[in-house]
Amino acid sequence: MTQAPDPADRDGRASARHTPGTPCWVSLMVHDMTATQGFYGELFGWEFEPGPAQLGPYVRARLDGRQVAGIGLLPPDRHLPVAWTPYLASDDVDVTAETVRLCGGTVGVGPLDAGEVGRLVLGSDPSGAVFGVWQVPGERGGAAGGRPGAPLWNELRTFETANVAKFYASLFGYEERRPESGGAGAGEEGADRVTLCLDGRPVAGILGAGPALRHDGGPHWLTYFEVADTDAAVERLTGLGGRVVAPAHDTARGRTATVTDPEGARFAVLQRGGTGTDGRRAAG
C-alpha cells in the first residue's frame, strides 16, 4: 500500500486501498538483488520471500509479516534507470492501458499476467514519468501501512501540474485539491502543487518543479517511506552506502529527506509530525 493512511487507521487497513487510482504497490528493479535486499533489510527491517515466477527473479518484502514492496532483477542487457515505481489500482488493466495511450501516455510493458497476484502494466505519462497499473484480484489482505519502514505517500515531480493532472484524472477520475494562496504548503517547495483525491481522500500528490527538474533526471515519481526518526534513518542509510540528495528538513508534513540507495534509486524518508492543509492525511 502506498497511500498515506488516515490517522484514525494507522494499521493501513483503509477502505480506499483498492479503489481504482489508489496507489497499491511499489516495486524496484535492480542489478544486484542480494545487495539491495541487504540494504533495505538493514534500513527498514524488511524480510523477503520469493515473488511470482512470472515476474522473473523477484522478491516481496515483508514488514511485521505483511507485504510492503517488491524487488526484481533487471535483465543484464537492459540499461534502464534504477527507480522505485508506484502502481495504481485498476479494475481492468487492459482498459486503463488503452486509456493511457489515448491520453498521450506510453505503455512500455504489458498488460501481462502475474499469476495469482493479478495483472499489470508499466507505462509513462506524457511528461515521461514511469508508473505502473495493477489489477489486484479481490482483497488480498492488508499491507504494512502506517508504521516505520512502510511506504507512506507518492508524489509526482514534474515540470508543471495542470496538464499532467488532467492526464491522471482521465485515467482514474481524481479530484484536484490545490493549496490556497499563501496557505500551508503553498510556498514550501513552490506554489505549483496539487493533491489527487478519491472520494475526498488524498491518495497522491503532484509537484510542478519547473525547469530545475532537469537537474534531477526529469519527471519521476518519488515514494516516501515512513521512519521513526529521519535524522537517524539518514545516518543509517549513509553508513549502508546510500546517498543524501536533499538533507533532512522540517515541512508541514513532518521531517523529511530525499536519498538514494547504493544503486541510485531515489526515495524519501519521512518522520510524521507536521500539520497543514495536506499534511493532515497526505503524509502527516
UniProtKB/TrEMBL annotation:
VOC domain mapped to chain residues:
22-136, 150-272
Q: Which PROSITE patterns match?
A: VOC (PS51819)
The record ties this protein, via Pfam families, to:
Glyoxalase_6 (PF18029)
Q: Out of the domains of life, which is the source?
A: Bacteria
Q: Which Gene3D superfamilies match?
A: 2,3-Dihydroxybiphenyl 1,2-Dioxygenase, domain 1 (3.10.180.10)
Q: Which InterPro entries match?
A: Anthracycline_SecMetBiosynth (IPR052164), Glyas_Bleomycin-R_OHBP_Dase (IPR029068), Glyoxalase_6 (IPR041581), VOC_core (IPR037523)
PANTHER family from the entry? Answer: CONSERVED PROTEIN, GLYOXALASE-RELATED
For this entry, the protein name equals VOC family protein
Source species of the chain: Streptomyces andamanensis
